[in-house]
Amino acid sequence: MSLAAIHIAKKELALTDAEYRAILWETAGVDSVKHLDAAGDRAVMARFNALRDEWRMATLKRIKTPTERKIWRLWLVESSPCVSRGRGDCCGNITAVYNNTSIILPG
Fold first, then answer.
1. What SS3 class is residue 19?
2. Burial zone of 44 (CB within 10 Å; 0-12 exposed, 13-18 middle, 19+ buried)
3. Cα 18 from Cα 27, distance rounded (Å)
4. Among the residues of 1-107, which ranges form H helices?
5. Model pLDDT for residues 49-87, shown as the tens digit of each residue
6. Which carries the bigger pLDDT value, residue 89 or residue 53?
7. pLDDT at position 2, please?
8. Distance in angstroms (rounded) separating the CA atoms of residues 99 and 71
9. Which residue has the higher pLDDT, 87 or 7?
10. C-alpha to C-alpha distance for 96 and 89, rounded to whole angstroms
11. Count of C-beta atoms within a 10 Å radius of residue 24
12. Rounded distance, CA 7 to CA 91, Å?
């Protein structure tokens, strides 16, 4: 990895400088990335990736309002490359909507 990759991950995670330095100290025992060796670099990036995964799972599990659920459902159905509005999909299946739920019927 590189110094830039670590700083990009820090920015993506919106870490404060104190949080960032605490992670560096806990995972690699240094207070600056310029003092990292290869093993420390891998450990820091692994920790950042774990934090990113935790953040993503937390946002996925967040309770959504009915409006948010509807928007996501519409976006997912409309952006799907296989769904062609009830006429069938790219696999020959027919997509039907029942009770606001898309059902794929074998073609």
1. helix
2. buried
3. 14
4. 3-12, 17-28, 38-61, 66-79
5. 999 888 877 766 666 788 887 887 787 776 665 544 444
6. 53
7. 77
8. 16
9. 7
10. 11
11. 22
12. 44
Query: Residue 7 is encoded by which pair of tokens?
Result: 């700083």
Count of residues making up the chain: 107
pLDDT of 107 > 50? The answer is: no
Phi, then psi, of 103 in degrees rounded to 5: -120, 130
Q: Are 21 and 15 in contact (CB under 8 A)?
A: no
Angle at 71 between CA 70 and CA 74, to 5 degrees: 85
pLDDT digits (tens, 9 = 90+) for 17-49: 999 999 999 999 998 888 888 898 899 999 999
Q: What does the block give as tokens for 61? A: 């599990």
Identify the CA nearest to 55 among candidates 5, 22, 96, 9: 9
**Does the predicted model carry a pTM greater than 0.90?**
no
- Assigned token pair, 80: 């799907």
